[in-house]
Amino acid sequence: MPGDSVDTISVSQLTYRHNPDTEPSLIDVDLLLPRGSRTIVVGANGAGKSTLLQILAGKRLVSTPGAHIFVKDRDVFRDSPPGVTFLGTEWAMNPVVRGDIVVSAFLDSVGGYRHKERRDKLLDILDVDLDWHMHNISDGERRRVQLCFGLMVDWDVLLLDEVTVDLDVLVRDDLLNFLKADSEARGATILCKLHATHIFDGLNNFPTHVAHMRLGTFVTQPAAWPVTSDSALVSQFAPGTTLYNVALQWLKEDRDNRQELEKNGRKARGARRDQV
Ligand SMILES: Nc1ncnc2c1ncn2[C@@H]1O[C@H](COP(=O)(O)OP(=O)(O)OP(=O)(O)O)[C@@H](O)[C@H]1O
Asked: Which of UniProt's keywords are assigned here (predicted)?
């Protein structure tokens, strides 16, 4: 709850509609994430993962009475917390980052010279060339520049929305190791969305918690990872289960649930309320 410094992220009674006449994308969400945790959220398309990340980043205003959205003990909207980094896919679409600007100038324009050590480490991990021109690089290369840009500042909370999807496996592996070591060394908290098409190799050792969202709610709250004989997930999975198997089972349950709803005449989410 707000005021408890053990939890970096504390959410309660969060309901959110993108449009007033559609079904809510998040329904009465409660969430507590301890400081230093690294949580992967699994869920089918449209489960509400990105919407939740965007709200935690303060990018979507929530006006639902009673909703509490606190990051680092601060109200995300009224007293926005410092040290929160959100990395989402829309960044690469921004015309500014597609202009004729050299990477070194671009990174310096956002203070890269002040974080030279971390910047150089990230340039190395992400294999980014300071002489690249932003308008002349591939989407994957632009993504690597974005990661360098977003991660070079010391963040306390990192909200990752799919941005590792188009990295090659070597770069991605190095980056995950960097993020893991960074979060362990500084007690920084990471929440990331796992896309259904994600490559799972190398991800197994990354999270401290995994969670499952479906139709705007958590069907499994963040649970300690890996699965051990005394962990909450042992009722669903055998100790030592891989993240790949967990995701497969949860996504299959999501599909079964959707088919059941459709059989019973329920329209897909996003339909107007008066059509549901
Ligand atoms: N900008 C928007 N305007 C209206 N509805 C939206 C918008 N963004 C998302 N939604 C709706 O909110 C719901 C949750 O979407 P969200 O993008 O959060 O899901 P997700 O779990 O991240 O899905 P995916 O894995 O497919 O990216 C979906 O029904 C989606 O149609």
From this structure: ATP-binding, Nucleotide-binding
User: What is the residue-wise DSSP string for 86-132?
Assistant: EE-GGGGG-GGGGSS-BHHHHHHHTTGGGGHHHHHHHHHHHT--TT-
Give the helix ranges, DSSP H, for the chain.
49-56, 103-109, 116-126, 139-151, 169-186, 243-263
pLDDT of residue 1: 42
Long-range contacts, stretch 182-186, CB < 8 angstroms, 24+ apart: 183/36, 183/38, 183/158, 184/36, 186/154, 186/156
To test ligand 1's pocket by mutation, which of 16, 49, 86, 163 has the most ligand atoms within 8 angstroms of CB? 49
Can you list the domains of the chain with their CATH numbers? 7-83+154-275 (3.40.50.300)
pLDDT band at 273 (very low <50, low <70, confident <90, very high): very low
* Cβ 59 under 6 angstroms from ligand 1: no
Q: For 125-134, what is each residue's pLDDT tens digit?
A: 999 999 999 8
- State the burial class of residue 192 (Cβ atoms within 10 Å of its Cβ: 0-12, 13-18, 19+): buried
Residue 198: what pLDDT? 65
For atom 28 of ligand 1, the residue with the nearest CA is 46
By most ligand atoms within 8 Å of CB, the mutation choice from 15, 17, 18, 255 for ligand 1 is 18
More confident: 169 or 85: 85
8-state DSSP, 233? G
51 lines ligand 1 (CB under 6 A): yes
Q: Which residue has the higher pLDDT, 157 or 20?
A: 157
Two structure tokens written together for 22:
């559609």
124 CB-near residues (< 8 Å, 6+ apart): none
- CB of 107 sitting under 6 A from ligand 1: no
